Amino acid sequence: xxxxxxxxxxxxxxxxxxxxxxxxxxxxxxxxxxxxxxxxxxxxxxxxxxxxxxxxxxxxxxxxxxxxxxxxxxxxxxxxxxxxxxxxxxxxxxxxxxxxxxxxxxxxxxxxxxxxxxxxxxxxxxxxxxxxxxxxxxxxxxxxxxxxxxxxxxxxxxxxxxxxxxxxxxxxxxxxxxxxxxxxxxxxxxxxxxxxxxxxxxxxxxxxxxxxxxxxxxxxxxxxxxxxxxxxxxxxxxxxxxxxxxxxxxxxxxxxxxxxxxxxxxxxxxxxxxxxxxxxxxxxxxxxxxxxxxxxxxxxxxxxxxxxxxxxxxxxxxxxxxxxxxxxxxxxxxxxxxxxxxxxxxxxxxxxxxxxxxxxxxxxxxxxxxxxxxxxxxxxxxxxxxxxxxxxxxxxxxxxxxxxxxxxxxxxxxxxxxxxxxxxxxxxxxxxxxxxxxxxxxxxxxxxxxxxxxxxxxxxxxxxxxxxxxxxxxxxxxxxxxxxxxxxxxxxxxxxxxxxxxxxxxxxxxxxxxxxxxxxxxxxxxxxxxxxxxxxxxxxxxxxxxxxxxxxxxxxxxxxxxxxxxxxxxxxxxxxxxxxxxxxxxxxxxxxxxxxxxxxxxxxxxxxxxxxxxxxxxxxxxxxxxxxxxxxxxxxxxxxxxxxxxxxxxxxxxxxxxxxxxxxxxxxxxxxxxxxxxxxxxxxxxxxxxxxxxxxxxxxxxxxxxxxxxxxxxxxxxxxxxxxxxxxxxxxxxxxxxxxxxxxxxxxxxxxxxxxxxxxxxxxxxxxxxxxxxxxxxxxxxxxxxxxxxxxxxxxxxxxxxxxxxxxxxxxxxxxxxxxxxxxxxxxxxxxxxxxxxxxxxxxxxxxxxxxxxxxxxxxxxxxxxxxxxxxxxxxxxxxxxxxxxxxxxxxxxxxxxxxxxxxxxxxxxxxxxxxxxxxxxxxxxxxxxxxxxxxxxxxxxxxxxxxxxxxxxxxxxxxxxxxxxxxxxxxxxxxxxxxxxxxxxxxxxxxxxxxxxxxxxxxxxxx
Length: 1008
Fold this sequence. Notes:
Elements: H1 2-7, E1 11-14, E2 19-22, H2 24-29, H3 34-45, H4 49-61, E3 64-66, H5 67-74, H6 78-90, E4 94-96, E5 110-113, H7 116-124, H8 130-146, H9 153-162, H10 172-188, H11 192-209, H12 216-231, H13 235-246, H14 254-268, H15 273-285, H16 297-313, H17 317-320, H18 327-338, H19 340-346, H20 348-365, H21 369-385, H22 399-404, H23 409-422, H24 428-445, H25 448-460, H26 466-483, H27 486-503, H28 508-512, H29 529-541, H30 545-557, H31 564-580, H32 587-604, H33 616-629, H34 632-649, H35 652-668, H36 673-690, H37 693-702, H38 704-707, H39 724-730, H40 734-742, H41 746-753, H42 755-758, H43 765-777, E6 781-788, E7 791-796, H44 804-807, H45 812-821, E8 825-827, H46 839-844, E9 848-854, E10 863-869, H47 878-901, E11 906-909, H48 912-924, E12 933-936, H49 949-959, H50 964-971, H51 975-989, H52 994-1003
Antiparallel strand pairs: 1-2, 3-5, 4-5, 6-7, 6-10, 8-9, 9-10, 11-12
């Protein structure tokens, strides 16, 4: 057997470690052949009886065991134990796991059985005493738990349960207590199957011991059993078990009855919130409280006014008040918290009224972390449900109250979750960070009830791009597989399908199909509001308006007013759907559509934050209304304003929708194919950056004729770096460059000689070039602009003292056209061109315009030169473009030459034949082709795509020696996501291994 392992390289000798290394996983996965079995049995039989007995106890511990634990269980001296184990090791039955590792002493060594069959042989030896052996192992492990050792409680209880035959009757009750501890730990960790096993075992031991059913241990074991059944998806048995405990009545304490009510509320919150509220009402009667299920608005306003006044008075004293930790009071607060979610689904106004009363009671009773959470939830409810009544938040947006009362780890991530919810309206990016932080912390600590709620909240309120959504789904995938309840799995499933449909057009048909049709996949009764909104959004984006209207109508039948995220999203996409149908609608339908648009605009003006009055979504609806009203100049301005706001919000999906609607307006109502092409290109870019690849494919397919002339995206070519020796030889001295330039044609020399008269300042060369361009071309106004993600920024202005509003005077449509085509453009008369509808041209009546890209080697994005003459048409010609390109090339050449001797150390060479050809082309009126060749004398990373911030973080973690699993835990992402980042890093750096990546990154100063 050993020889075969050596041949197959499962067993090898390491010279450096001076020991044998084997592949334990492969060894254990192999089934023994007949000859191997015979050899194993002969080896085991050759051992002394004392050694066999020792191995039998070792087999009870498990396939792997420690020598110290084995010695303590058997009552042997450590040296004697090692002597007997050495004999078994010599026979090839066991082997060392920790040989050569630091910290391995003579007293403590780790062994394992070299084959599962050997483990079975040892366990079967004197099997009648195995129960007693298990009992001794369990007792020894349990003593380690009590002393704070690493031995786990559940492992100890597993051995004690298997050793029940050797357990004295008087110790059965204590064994039941141990099982209660293990079941508690299992339920907290989300291990519901093990929790059920321990709870049932504990109840069985209590029955054998003759202990009554009303014992405290029995009550809590049944409570853990109910939680385990519920976590495993068996709601009805769990409910019946709790109701059976409730029949004990007065034999239970008040605190125990409230625990039962809380679990009943928790079990029914997502399954049937009406029943959960009924249980909550019964629980409140324990404290003499009455739940008003449908309070009037006047009653709510009265309670809120009193509570707001008290909170204002105690806004400082609350943070300094003593913490009240009375057990019954904490249970009461916990019950109130448990009621928040079902009451929110049932009646948000009733929850506000209940919390307003309880906060006044609690402030007089005393503060604790639970009451602090109730106060934050109360203010969150006022923000969402009664925004016009109470605008002031005393605690929800402050860290003080949370930090004062978040002494427990659980309280900290609960408060982080509440902070995230409170910030959703005004600061969605911050909100998402808080929610994800609380979610991952809850998953790490095994708070499964909280995590299920947090997963649902994170998904139904998500407003980011599809790439981050995929990361979120990856990070919760493992958790959902084992611990999620049915509702959570349903939400995760619909979110995954939603994201997939937006990425892959082939999946959209099945996702949005109306039930009952040939391709319908779902029954109406199974669709909640969130599911309907997801299908509505995909249907609208894929221009399937019939399906979109169906899902919009269905969403209204089961929506909740308190689920503001889904409701607002629903109203927006429903309005956009009917607006898209307007051109083909009849007279009566058009009247209805106009009324719906006006109603939606009026509704959105009352909203704040996402989809609110200052949002890009509101601007889009307003532009749609103006399009229907028929005011072309106002429509273009409205669309551009909405697109600008979408950029500010960094909402690529909204920007894509806006640009697509603008493109349709250009094409079908203004009959401007150029404007439609530019807007549609912007839409494709925005959709692509957001991850909506299916929409990009649809646009390019349906508008192929429109986009046929669309240029390929501008790519910055990487610098071709040679070795240091080659670079040195290719860098000509400045004298040789001057001689090469001097060989150019005389006419070209005369143009270049004019550069000093143009006033080129190499320290501020863009401004100097602009001044030269204005004088050379006959323009009366000009700018040089840089291209930014959020728009354009003026980097050179001949009149720097002007206001910011004055410097933004340029035709955006011309700039966009130049940027997209990467070609210069000359407008002989802007008022007679298809750019006449540009708001700037229309307002200023500009006549001649010239715009050209300025591509500088080493810069990631181009600059734009913008020139105009507001009074005279036909000022600029193509020859002006050639001259400006030639001046620009020479200016950049001189600037880089100067920089070579300073900080950047660049050298740019202009080939004499190229410059001569350029001069001849200008004289002949042909376009000039000027080539710049840039070479660097310093190491520059030769990759095209730079590393993202997350990739740099992952690379730094790799440099610290962290594994993929450790990196995932550090950043809260799945291990598969880490592997994806690592693969991209290797590709960008041009390496194959982690060590190579770290070395190269340090060489290029990417990391320290």
